[in-house]
Amino acid sequence: MRYDALIIGAGPAGSSAARLLAQAGWRVALVEKAEFPRRKVCGEFISATTMPVLKDCGIAVPFIAAAGPLVTRVGVYAGKTMLAASREQAWGRALGREHLDVMLRDAAVAAGAELFAPVEVTAVRREAESIICTLDDGSSLDARTVIAACGSWNAKGMFAVPSKAASASDLFAFKAHFSGGALPAGLMPLLAFPGGYGGLVHTDAGRTSLSCCIRRDTLAAARASHGGKAAEAVLAHIMETTSGVQAALGDASLQGNFLSTGPIHPGIRPRFDNGIYFTGNIAGEAHPVIAEGISMAIQSSGLLARLLIAHRGETYAKEWKKHFAPRIRAASVFAHLAMRAPTRFASLAVIRAMPGLLGLGARLSGKAPISA
Ligand SMILES: Cc1cc2nc3c(=O)[nH]c(=O)nc-3n(C[C@H](O)[C@H](O)[C@H](O)COP(=O)(O)OP(=O)(O)OC[C@H]3O[C@@H](n4cnc5c(N)ncnc54)[C@H](O)[C@@H]3O)c2cc1C
């Protein structure tokens, strides 16, 4: 059988594309190599700007029911400074990836997408009007259109992000859940600490999510000074350098284990190549400092599905750039301001004088509040 679309990866990008195409009547194959549910390195915050696509995917109501409380204030924790925007607005909510990804995948299947999992796409080749995807169980699937939504951190083969020589500035990512923390209600602070950045947010089931990125050289120094496993050294480094995290998590308990990945690959990559469309992180990845990657993944698939259904797939690469490139560039600027001491202190002084800049920064990253 020939599918109209074969989608590689059932993360937020892949499952939302699968759902939207399947409900438009396309015959869709969704191929995922991991066993779900699975946790993932991610802060889990989803911007309110993503709600229209979640509605189109039929999961807006269950998402709100399962997610953590509304994030009503953005803020910054850096050194001894703890700043929060004074105005309350509805910026979004967080939901663990073990729940969100299952919800989106099931929505795709409910709309008629055929799920192949756990199985990995190992090769893709063109044959006349078809694209043939080889799976690691020895079978193959034939499709008119292939959409690569395979993420960027462990993509292999033809989808691998070109690797660079190891560098001191490589970023490694860590994530954990905590219970019993003291993060103020509704607050999502950006963490700016020496050699890295991160975020805290209330997520589902009363948990607090801590996620961060840390430079290779800072990680090595933290391990040398704090000992223990990499994640323990990272947590000790953040607690020691960032009073707000000490206040929020000092008496909290770690739930489950720390997850890690890296180096990560922020940047803009091709969105179309030899008949294959790219969406989500593999097309373009923002520094996680803006907590917009899931939203961009879902929104970019919403854009791709809309254009494919309208027979305007050839405009996707250009439209993608218009919608997402400015956010990726803004994220890069914020990440570098956060990680370096002189710019971090200068930025804090400016934000302290003009706290409204916190909301402006959130908007530049692509967030837009709805009234709280
Ligand atoms: C520290 C950190 C914090 C973050 N915090 C946030 C946040 O708070 N909010 C936010 O919006 N974003 C955040 N992000 C970014 C977010 O996690 C990613 O942008 C998002 O996961 C991208 O979704 P995706 O669907 O493109 O890729 P993924 O979520 O990586 O999904 C890709 C899927 O494809 C599958 N796959 C890969 N290759 C194959 C193959 N060959 N065959 C079959 N299946 C395959 C994988 O198993 C995976 O399930 C954060 C990232 C980091 C590092």
> What is the CATH fold-level name of the domain at 2-39 and 97-162 and 265-334?
FAD/NAD(P)-binding domain
Total count of helical runs of at least 4 residues = 11
Q: What spatial form do the alpha-carbon principal axes imply?
A: globular
Assign the CATH superfamily of the domain at 2-39 and 97-162 and 265-334. FAD/NAD(P)-binding domain
Largest sheet: 8 strands, mixed
In N-to-C order, the SSE pattern is: EHEEHHEEEHEEEEEEEEHHHEEEEEHHHH
- At the first level of CATH, what is the class of the domain at 2-39 and 97-162 and 265-334? Alpha Beta
Give the cofactors and ligands: flavin-adenine dinucleotide
Shape-level CATH architecture of the domain at 2-39 and 97-162 and 265-334: 3-Layer(bba) Sandwich
Which structural class best describes the helix and strand composition? Answer: alpha/beta
Helix proportion: 25-40%
What is the beta-strand fraction? 25-35%
Q: Show unreliable segments.
A: none
Q: How many beta-strand runs? A: 19
How big is the Rg? 20 Å
Terminal Cα span: 49 Å
What do the pLDDT scores average to? 94
